[in-house]
Amino acid sequence: MSLDDLGPEELGQDAPSGVETLFDAPPLAEQERMVEAILFASAEPLSLAQIGERMPHGSDAAEALAVLRKRYEGRGVGVAKIGTGWALRTAPDLGFLMRREAKEVRKLSRAAIETLAIIAYHQPATRAEIEEIRGVSLSRGTIDILLELEWIKLGRRRGTPGRPVTFVTTQMFLDHFGLASARDLPGIKELRAAGLLDATPPGAEAEEEFLPGEDGEIDDMFPEEEAVV
After folding, report:
1. 210: pLDDT confidence band, cut at 50, 70 and 90?
2. Of 8, 54, 112, 163, which is least surrounded by CB within 10 A?
């Protein structure tokens, strides 16, 4: 029998549903160990597809990841969802133990913090939109700092005259602030409950959009952020 006579089942390639391949997938416990090793060795969050690419044929990365997440529940380190990826991260309630390890290179200026908050809450946002919300012109240096930190990136151009470029937050931004997605940013109700915003003005109960920079509370959203490069 030649190789041409062998079907996908004999070659260990993808076979139709319900047909076993030549090489069986590793036991689920072994797959879990593989996922753990992959996440531990990665310098950045990995998507489920990226994890699966590193595992043996026939492995179920999603199930192995689910088992690993459950095993890490209540531990000092957990499996966290960062944007569209997954990573091993210190438990949120133990973050204070790591503060001494952070290197303070420079602190973000008020302008940079305001700009970052506006982009986070209004993305995609153009330069003109940022300046309109802040009420002052935006220096190129402010945007450059946020781009260098990889907390923001260029988005799609607007379909308006001049086709201005937009700015959006990155996965590194989500990772730094411990967010799974931009939807996890505190809303206006949470900010008011935490005392970071004044009470809702009469007739504005239906307003749900937070405009960074109002009431001078921007520093409370991103307190004393340190830019580590």
Report:
1. very low
2. 163
Phi, psi at residue 107, to the nearest 5°? -100, 145
Any idea which residue has 């240096």 for tokens?
Answer: 141
106-227: which CATH architecture? Orthogonal Bundle (1.10)
- pTM of the predicted structure, to 2 decimals: 0.50
Among 3.40.50.1820, 3.60.21.10, 1.20.1440.20, 1.10.10.10, name the CATH number for the domain at 9-92.
1.10.10.10
Q: For 75-111, how does the pLDDT look when each residue is reduced to its tens digit (9 = 90+)?
A: 999 999 998 899 999 998 888 887 665 555 567 888 8
Q: What DSSP line would sit under 114-128, residue for residue?
A: HHHHHHHHH-SEEHH
| The three-state (H, E, C) secondary structure of 86-99, written as one string | EEEEECHHHHHHHH
Report the C-alpha gap between 110 and 216 in whole angstroms: 11
